[in-house]
Amino acid sequence: MEIQENIINKVAQSGLVTLDPAQFYPAGERVVYDIKDNLFHGLMLREKDFREFVKRHDWAHYQDKFIAVTCSADAIVPAWAYMLLANRLAPYAREVVFGDAEVLETVLFVKQIATMDVEQYRDQRLVIKGCGDTPVPVSAYVELTKKLTPVAKSLMFGEPCSTVPIYKRRD
Questions:
Q1: pLDDT band at 10; cut points 50, 70, 90
Q2: All structural domains of the chain with their residue ranges
Q3: 137 vs 59: CA distance, rounded Å
Q4: Where are the beta strands (DSSP E) in the chain?
Q5: Residues 6+ apart with CB under 8 A from 117
Q6: 97: which strand partners?
Q7: For residues 66 and 101, is the Cβ–Cβ distance under 8 A?
């Protein structure tokens, strides 16, 4: 008895287009600058001491890095202190944001997604990939959904073999 099996790749024939959010991940070193190290007794920022630190610190160490500026201590930190840091970091860093590492990733992904040309996805059945080696913040999935919904025929999350429907245009 001879058994002949024809394996058919239904995923390949489905016409689904897979979009990997990791493609919007900008390569580069991320640094969280925690202002807590500049606090007097871990409680407050003393202007004179802080200005002296800012003046003599070598900001070139942050060249081409993505920087999140934050304070992890429960302390009084005036807005001008963050502004001063941003002013010193901006000439060196690729990006400076206020917040933690998660905020930094959100800002980086959102900026990259904002530059994408959505016309290539017009009337396509899209699957936004849900797994991968690059961590993708939920905010990136939200941004992609907002940007692609007006042009896509349908939008799904997951892998082509196992998707969760998000949106389907009614023609």
A1: very low
A2: 10-26+115-168, 30-93
A3: 28
A4: 16-19, 30-34, 66-70, 95-98, 125-129, 154-159, 162-168
A5: none
A6: 68
A7: no
